[in-house]
Amino acid sequence: MGLAEEVLELEAAVRREKACPEILMYESDLIESLIGQVESREKALRIDPITPEEQFRGLLYQMDLDRVKYLLSSYLRSRLVKIQAYALWVVRQDDVNFLSPQEIDFLTKYYSIKTNHFKKTFLLGLPNDLRSLESRKGQRVIEVSPQLDKHVFIKVIDDVGRVQTENSADIYLEKGDIFFIPYNLVKPLITEERKIDLV
Amino acid sequence: MHAEKSKKLVRELKTSKWLPPYNVALISEISQDMASLYEKAVSDLEDRNTDSALIKSSLVNRNKRCVLAYLNYRLTKLECLRLETGPNIPPHFSNQLNKDEMDYFKQYSALLQDYSRKVSKSLDLTGDLQPPKDVFVEVRATEDVGDIVLPETGQVSLEKNTVHLLRRSEAAGLIRQGVLQHIN
């Protein structure tokens, strides 16, 4: 895949990540390859231009690089925002393979500074039995988990056919259709089969 | 009645534009109430008065939830502030925070920088919040800063109301600190 296609891929990934209520699989190959290319091109740009043409070309390249960097950071940022919002829930999951190693690292540290803050400001002033963040049923007191039945806008990129909805009315998804439906109804079609895109 | 104070605490969040001043007095009052309620619940249990104990323990839990929600909401606001204005808290915001929250802000800020560096040295996660339009931006200085040296442009003397053409990457931080104003 060339750089141009990868950037398009990244744009789609940013859009998906922003529209999706849960944290999607980290696009490790794509992100790593793009970061590598951005870094090497930036290095190449740092060599001082000699002629005005080279200077001009350098500026154009810089502009394009800045755009790719913006996309990259907004992809990573929108994931971080979700990781923070669901932090108390994510740390309890057994399987966190949807996060990158750096994100897992971020999450662990984030969780510890956050719970520390709760302890310092409030929980340590309580009787011993009340200090835990967990209530009796094993659920965290202020845990927020992704709201999977949230409605999302979808665009069908490949014919899917019949999909059963909760009130047992069927809908037909054909290429090019745009729907507003609960996320968990079409989740596998988005994450695994890639027949539907979030818009 | 017993949860009235926590209700007030949570309501405070709604009444202010950004965050209300940290209400340390109310939180410690609630903690004391919780402790005494808890004691009563335990003694109720010893008297085998389970109904009353149940009510008291759910009151305790409700109070706890409210206070934690209050604290959590404030932290979330702080995280947004970090993303939007950079690693320094503007003075009119810092008045509303208590010392622990300032500490949290610093820790969070360091954590974010650390993550950003680990992913890539050439990315700044909090740099571009809007898609970039041009390599250069025209900016006007809003206060006297004096001479500063920027990595690409070289030396610039930022005096009040002077207009400069700077690299966007260099100006972004200063714009968010409020030193420069974006004018095109």
UniProtKB/TrEMBL annotation, chain A:
GO terms for biological process: DNA-templated DNA replication; double-strand break repair via break-induced replication. One of its GO terms (cellular component) is GINS complex. Residues 146-193 form the DNA replication complex GINS protein SLD5 C-terminal domain. SUPFAM superfamilies: GINS helical bundle-like, PriA/YqbF domain. Keywords: DNA replication, Nucleus. It is found in: Nucleus. InterPro entries: GINS_A, GINS_bundle-like_dom_sf, GINS_Sld5, SLD5_C, Sld5_GINS_A. Residues 56-120 form the GINS subunit domain. The GINS complex plays an essential role in the initiation of DNA replication. Belongs to the GINS4/SLD5 family. PANTHER family: DNA REPLICATION COMPLEX GINS PROTEIN SLD5, SLD5 PROTEIN. This is DNA replication complex GINS protein SLD5.
Automatic annotation (TrEMBL), chain B:
This is DNA replication complex GINS protein PSF1. SUPFAM superfamilies: GINS helical bundle-like (SSF158573). InterPro entries: GINS_A, GINS_bundle-like_dom_sf, GINS_Psf1, PSF1_C. Transmembrane segments: none annotated. It comes from the Eukaryota. GO terms for cellular component: GINS complex. Residues 57-118 form the GINS subunit domain. GO terms for biological process: DNA strand elongation involved in mitotic DNA replication. Residues 133-183 form the DNA replication complex GINS protein PSF1 C-terminal domain. The keyword Nucleus applies. PANTHER family: DNA REPLICATION COMPLEX GINS PROTEIN PSF1, PARTNER OF SLD5. The keyword RNA-binding does not apply. It holds the Pfam family PSF1_C. Keywords: DNA replication, Nucleus. It is found in: Nucleus. Gene3D superfamilies: 1.20.58.1030. Belongs to the GINS1/PSF1 family. It comes from Blepharisma stoltei.
